[in-house]
C-alpha cells in the first residue's frame, strides 16, 4: 500500500515559513524518532503512522526504525557551520542529500574544507569567526543536487528551499553559528570537541552540485532517481516519492496542499504499489 505523509512543521530561527507566530524552517515529511513518527493516510482513507508500520513489520527498519528521514528545508538566513558523525562508519552515522527546489539568485552552500585548513588553522578560524574562508563555496540553482557524506563541514545559505533525504540520524555537531543569539537571547550551543573529531581531513574529496538526470550517486543506504514527464512508477517496499511539480494520477489521499505548494510525499509499505506521475519527482529507493 502507498501512503501520503502529513508533514510536521518544525520551528527554526532561520526559517522562511510562517505559521501563526512561529518561524518554521523545516517540514518533516517521513520520520521516526524517540518522540513520534510521521502521520500517514492512504488513498482509501486509512490512517496510520511510520511507527505503527515498523512495529507491524510493514516497513524496512534498522535498529527498530525506518532508515530514512525526509525533510524540506526553508531558509531565510544561513544555517550554522556544522558536521555530521560517521566518517569512519559505526552506528552513529549521518549522510544526507540535498535537492534544490527553489533558490534566490546567488544562493549558496558551503561544503568541504579547503586543503589549507590544517587543524591549527581550523582551530584559529573557529575561534576568530573566520571559518567561511576555509570552506568551498558552491552556487546553488533549482534542479541541482549535492550529496553530503559524513564528516563534511557544511553550511546552507539563505533563500533556498531544499529537499533533504538522509539516514535516520538527527545528530548534528554545530561548529560555528555566526556569532548570533538563539531565540532565548543566548548563544546557541556549540559541539567543538565532538565536531572536530568527526571532520574528514582537509583536502578530502569535496561535494559538488550536479544537474539532476536519471540518478544520483549517494552512499550505501539509498539511491535517488529523478522522474519526469508522464510515466507509470513502481514504488518498491520502503521507497519514498517526493512530488516536486505536477500531480500523481490515480492517487488522492485527500491531503490538502502544504504551504501553498503542490508537493506531495508518498511512502510505500512492504506491499509496494504503482502510481502514475505527471510532473517531476524525486524517488528514494533503499539499497
Strand content: 35-45%
Give the spatial strand order of the biggest sheet.
8-7-1-22-21-23-20-19
CATH topology of the largest domain, by name, is Jelly Rolls
CATH superfamily of the largest domain: Jelly Rolls
**Number of helical regions:** 3
Shape: globular
Task: Count all strands and give the number.
Answer: 23
> According to CATH, what is the class of the largest domain?
Mainly Beta
Structure description:
With 287 residues, this protein is mainly β. It folds into 2 domains: 2-211, Jelly Rolls (Sandwich); 222-286, no CATH class. Helix content is 8%, strand content 45%. The protein has 3 helices and 23 strands. The chain has helices spanning 50-55, 119-128, 192-198, and strands at 2-6, 8-11, 17-19, 22-30, 32-33, 36-37, 39-42, 47-49, 68-75, 81-83, 96-103, 108-113, 135-139, 144-148, 154-156, 160-167, 173-176, 210-211, 215-216, 222-235, 240-249, 264-268, 273-286. The strands form 5 sheets. It has an 8-stranded antiparallel sheet. Strands 2, 3, 4, 9, 11, 14, 16 and 18 form an 8-stranded antiparallel sheet that branches. A hairpin with a 2-residue loop joins strand 3 (17-19) and strand 4. 41% of the residues are buried. The model has no long low-confidence stretch (mean pLDDT 91).
